[in-house]
Amino acid sequence: MEHALSHATLSELRRPRPYPAVSVLTPTHRREPLNAQDRVRLRNVVAEAKKQLEADPSVTRERRADVGDQLDRALAEVDLTHTEDGLVIFAAPGEHQVWSLARSVPERVVLSDTFLTRNLVSARAAERPFWVLSVSPDRVTLWNGGVDRVVEERRGGFPFARSRENFDAERMERVGDLPSTFRDEGTRHFLRDADTALGRLLRENPRPLYVTGEQAALSLLDEFGGAARHAVHVPHGGLTHATPDAVWQAVRPVLDAQARRDTADVARELDSARGHKTFAAGVDELWQNAREGRVRLLAVEENYRVTVRDDGDHLIPAESGDLDAREDIVDEIVEQCLETGADVRFVPDGALGDAAGMAGVLRY
Predict the structure, then answer these.
(1) Does the CA dihedral 206-207-208-212 come out positive or negative?
(2) What is the pLDDT of residues 245-304, one digit of tens each?
């Protein structure tokens, strides 16, 4: 199952496909007892997708068989023991993908000539992905971070590792000889190569960066003035060979502190917008402004969901299952704002007070 959505991957998902490109969405659950229903619900929604394929007269028998087979193969790849809060299956002639999301999605099936990506985009924004670079004299490890975990990322040359005769970084840490190790020309060259590779990665997939290591290593990366110079330092050694959970526990206090600062910054910006008459709140007002590209900053409470329908002039409250109900309007607004260059921030539930779950600062 896929988790990490890069800009290149999103562009590939959005390209037109031969009809039908099928998008299957269903909410999932991380814990018992709610996750007991996930398997049945998933099979039912895939069956509904096949039913729609059968009923569509524009789908040829060959295409129907091909896409049906892709749905079956996707279903077989789903590992419900490692699901998060939402699951998305994409299937088209000759291809399929399965995405696990750390954000709930409405249950739905869509047949089109493109895949439905708005829920992936919103989940990526809510997840606030980040990189962690763990540095030692003999190894540099890259970690891919999300809402509640990090996993090792093996691409772009990472992990970087070297060995040399009579070199024992852990022994040097114990005897206090680590600073001289980082003055060694071989070590400097090794870490500079890793910093260069990091720069390439950040150009392709920019995210906040946290660097862990001994203070001497962090100082050396700053001295290089390269890709790691703007990183947040976490002075914690011994993580290049550590478990993902150990790395997560090391960076979590720093991430929590940053999240609190970000929430306070959002609150200040929204208060200022009220005074300057550039404040907007609620799905109807924000949807109108998002379509016009007027939203500069969008703040969304993490678990805010609302179902609406369009009466022609405004979005009005609706019930799930109503005709023309739009259950993922929040994700639609998030995607539209990101498409027009807005800064989208997810904040803790209740942080927006009377702003009804989401609020924004307008450009004009």
Answers:
(1) negative
(2) 999 999 999 999 999 999 999 999 999 999 999 999 999 999 999 999 999 999 999 889
DSSP 3-state of 263: helix
The single-letter DSSP state of residue 102 is S
Contact 20, 94 (CB under 8 A): no
Query: Which tokens sit at 236?
Result: 């914690």
Q: Could you give the CA distance from residue 289 to residue 130 in angstroms, rounded to a whole number?
A: 29
- Residue 209 phi, psi dihedral angles, 5° rounding: -125, 135
Kindly report whether the peptide bond that precedes residue 179 is cis, defined as omega within 30 degrees of 0. no
Q: Is the peptide bond before 208 cis (omega within 30 degrees of 0)?
A: no
Whether 201 and 144 have beta carbons less than 8 Å apart is answered as no
Question: Does this model's pTM top 0.85?
Answer: no
User: What is the DSSP code string of 40-93?
Assistant: HHHHHHHHHHHHHHHH-TTS-HHHHHHHHHHHHHHHHH--GGG--SEEEEEEET
**Phi, psi dihedral angles at 92 (to 5 degrees):** -145, 170
From 210, 207, 198, select the one nearest 252 (Cα to Cα): 210
Distance CA 143, CA 252 (A): 13
- For residue 69, give both structure tokens: 């087979």
Distance in angstroms (rounded) separating the CA atoms of residues 331 and 346: 12
**Per-residue pLDDT tens over the stretch 112-125:** 999 999 999 988 88
Q: Comparing C-alpha atoms, which of 66, 231, 216, 54 is closest to residue 142?
A: 231
* Separation between Cα atoms, residue 135 and residue 211, nearest integer Å: 7
